[in-house]
Specification:
globular, two-stranded antiparallel sheet, 15 helices, Thiolase_C, alpha+beta
Length: 473
């Protein structure tokens, strides 16, 4: 763990060795700083001999701040609601679904395979296999690409993928010493053996173990890493607050205009029907500026206002081979095309997944940044997003950290997260990937674009990017 963070440039090499070589020019949220994208190619990304995989549709239940209306539920309740919403939206026959895969991060021990429990609860056949994946904040991305692989290989034609997270109720364990004692008691065969084990219990055995949003390999919380990253790229508190305010303002506008059509109502047992996300709260720079640093105190720049909040929610998408979708009478929303996963050093480059993944996925697809009409990046922290944009726009970073000849360039903000992002809509860890894909598909249709690029960072220094192509109208 580094010592107390300051914004003095002289401290940066100890934090990120490459940091002082990056340009420290201000990255405003104004789109005028970015060159306009050149006219894009109109070619399709279909490949000979490769099946086209389509997103028929996708939904999510409203994303809510943890501790609110979903607090008394379990993760499979949320996932089940998303699955039922998908069934209602698409009218797909349950028996037509051949496989279900869900992502989750904080596992409920009673429903470790939450995909299976949610599927059974939603009324799917007990003959429909289901499994659960985990890859931190890109868990539903992994669920979707697992579905893509099953369909592309010809094993399946119809797969449901999704993700769920319930941060209102996370598993809290006894300490390891207490667990060992309790297991020993269960095996003890006599009263004297049990009394002997009980006599060894000490007060510190009773201290609980809580799950931490921290890296196991470094023991550093993601918030601390985000603060160091913002400092390394000379991203000010004001810039971070401006970007967070942008996210909330755009999300509020999209919500008010009815653009968030992937949201389906959820009747919470014993409570009202939830209709919309509850974390969208445009404030003012003055109010945001009053908040104290959340992680690195007192000099940090990451606060509760410019970070994504703990969120409960679930999402699901219906994936099919194109021929199957058309045979069943569907008009798909989009094609899922090339995708990549990347990983870096979790100590110094924990949150830079989009920077590494974007040029790789563009090369795989034979596209350039100028070909992309819609960008949807996961917003873990405002500083994380702005650091990625600066890294993507740095030749030095590309050459010295990525082994590339030149930078890929930064996405123009007029195409970037135009309906808000995780800072405002919320971030149920494993459910965000499906939201990103569906927002991309809906924006492509509304804005008349052809290609979208989804990207996200994840714990462990990992990342993901995918090309989404609008389905022809």
């Amino acid at each position: 763990m580094t010592t107390m963070l300051t914004c003095a440039v002289k401290t940066l090499p100890a934090v990120f060795p490459w940091a002082t070589r990056i340009s420290v020019r201000s990255l405003s949220c104004s789109p005028q700083l970015h060159a306009a994208a050149q006219p894009k190619s109109k070619k399709t990304l279909a490949k000979n001999g490769v099946r086209n995989i389509v997103v028929v549709d996708g939904v999510r239940i409203p994303f809510l701040q943890s501790g609110t209306s979903y607090a008394d539920l379990m993760p499979h309740d949320l996932a089940r609601a998303a699955l039922k919403g998908l069934l209602d939206r698409t009218d797909v026959p349950k028996e037509a679904v051949e496989y279900i895969v869900f992502g989750t991060v904080i596992q409920e021990v009673k429903t470790s395979n939450v995909a299976r429990e949610a599927a059974l609860g939603a009324g799917f056949s007990d003959k429909t296999p289901a499994h659960t994946v985990t890859m931190a904040c890109i868990s539903s991305n992994q669920a979707m690409t697992t579905g893509v692989g099953l369909i592309a290989s010809g094993q399946m034609d119809v797969v449901v993928a999704g993700g769920v997270e319930l941060m209102s109720d996370v598993p809290i364990r006894h300490s390891r010493k207490m667990r060992k004692t309790m297991l020993g008691l269960s095996r003890a065969k006599s009263l004297s053996q049990k009394l002997s084990l009980l006599s060894r219990i000490r007060p510190n055995f009773l201290a609980p173990e809580l799950p931490a949003v921290a890296e196991f390999s470094t023991n550093e919380t993601m918030g601390h890493s985000a603060d160091r990253l913002a400092a390394a790229f000379a991203i000010s508190r004001l810039e971070q607050d401006e970007f967070a305010l942008r996210s909330h303002s755009l999300a509020k506008k999209a919500q008010d205009e009815g653009l968030l059509t992937d949201v389906v109502p959820f009747k919470v047992p014993g409570k009202d029907t939830i209709m919309r996300d509850n974390g969208i709260r445009p404030s003012s720079l003055e109010q945001m500026g009053k908040l104290k640093p959340a992680f690195v105190k007192p000099y940090g720049t990451v606060t509760a206002a410019n970070s994504s909040f703990l969120t409960d929610g679930a999402s699901a998408v219906l994936l099919m081979s194109e021929e199957k979708a058309l045979a069943m009478g569907y008009k798909p929303k989009a094609y899922l095309r090339d995708f990549v996963y990347v990983s870096q050093d979790p100590k110094d480059q924990l949150l830079l997944g989009p920077t590494y993944a974007t040029p790789k996925v563009l090369e795989r697809a034979g596209l350039t940044l100028a070909d992309i009409d819609v960008f949807e990046f996961h917003e873990a922290f405002a500083g994380q997003i702005l650091a990625n944009l600066k890294a993507m726009d740095s030749d030095w970073f590309a050459q010295n950290c990525m082994g590339r000849k030149a930078k890929v360039g930064a996405p123009p903000l007029e195409k970037f997260n135009k309906w808000g992002g995780s800072l405002s809509l919320g971030h149920p860890f494993a459910a965000t990937g499906c939201r990103l894909v569906m927002t991309t598909a809906h924006r492509l249709k509304k804005e008349g674009g052809q290609y979208g690029l989804v990207a996200a960072c994840a714990a462990g220094g990992q990342g993901h990017a995918m090309i989404v192509e609008r389905y022809p109208q």
